């Protein structure tokens, strides 16, 4: 019998429409996650699914889609806050793996999402697997990675611990009952499973709070001849912590402050 604390936590995140729920369904071998594009059907809160991955039960957290904000630079704050709260809420059992699902065409918000969760919130302590979806038109899906690997690294700083270039759909049903993309679908399933098993932390990383702000204390001293100094004024000022400063680089100080204030709301 598998104890609750023994089940690895894998958090799937990415933009709306990237195929997160389809990947969950593919791994589950059945439709367990809603893939509807309607407002009422879209994944909004996180949903957990226990899935057998090559003989090991893993808990996949299908999260709200991270959408590009109106400025084109900032992920949708409400979805970002929900995902941040989920990661915080897993502090007792920890996080074993991040799965970043993306479409072949990169947007700036794609990079923002990667940096925010991998580099800032999880502090690069949690391995990450990149899953590139919607590649069923490629003659060899894996070649997409090798054509774009250098640009992902050099231009976007996306360097995962492992990757899978896949299709998460079976295609059209044929008169025989088979589907046009069955072979590609089965190969994709195996690729994602392999990446998950090879990259998942054996011992989960216990989530620690990022340093959004810190308090600096300065003291002014009075010095008298032949006497020791004594403090005459003590001041405190709040400045951005390391995590906040890194967030500023991504989206600017104003947007970073707004987002962090939402993070810190009770």
TrEMBL record:
InterPro entries: GTP-bd, P-loop_NTPase, Sigma_54_int_dom_ATP-bd_1. The keyword Transport does not apply. One of its GO terms (molecular function) is hydrolase activity. PROSITE patterns: SIGMA54_INTERACT_1 (PS00675). The keyword Cytoplasm does not apply. Residues 10-132 form the G domain. Keywords: Hydrolase. This is P-loop containing nucleoside triphosphate hydrolase protein. The lineage of its organism: Eukaryota, Fungi, Dikarya, Basidiomycota, Agaricomycotina.
């Amino acid at each position: 019998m598998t104890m609750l604390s023994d089940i690895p936590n894998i958090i799937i995140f990415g933009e709306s429409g990237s195929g997160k729920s389809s990947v969950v369904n593919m791994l589950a071998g059945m439709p367990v996650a809603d893939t509807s594009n309607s407002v009422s059907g879209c994944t909004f809160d996180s949903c957990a699914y226990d899935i057998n991955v090559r003989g090991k039960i893993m808990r996949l957290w299908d999260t709200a889609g991270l959408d590009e904000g109106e400025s084109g630079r900032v992920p949708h704050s409400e979805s970002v806050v929900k995902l941040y709260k989920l990661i915080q809420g897993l502090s007792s059992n920890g996080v074993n793996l991040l799965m970043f699902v993306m479409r072949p065409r990169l947007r700036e918000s794609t990079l923002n999402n990667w940096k925010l969760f991998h580099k800032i919130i999880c502090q690069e302590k949690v391995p990450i697997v990149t899953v590139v979806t919607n590649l069923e038109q490629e003659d060899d899906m894996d070649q997409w990675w090798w054509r774009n690997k250098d640009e992902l690294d050099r231009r976007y700083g996306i360097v995962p611990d492992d990757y899978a270039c896949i299709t998460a759909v079976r295609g059209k049903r044929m008169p025989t009952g088979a589907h046009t993309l069955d072979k590609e679908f089965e190969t994709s399933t195996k690729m994602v499973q392999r990446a998950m098993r090879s990259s998942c932390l054996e011992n989960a990383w216990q989530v620690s709070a990022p340093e959004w702000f810190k308090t600096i204390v300065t003291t002014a001293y009075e010095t008298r001849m032949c006497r020791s100094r004594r403090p005459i004024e003590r001041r405190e000022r709040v400045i951005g912590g390391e995590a906040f400063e890194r967030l500023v680089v991504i989206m600017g100080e104003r947007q970073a402050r707004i987002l962090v204030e939402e993070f810190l709301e009770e």
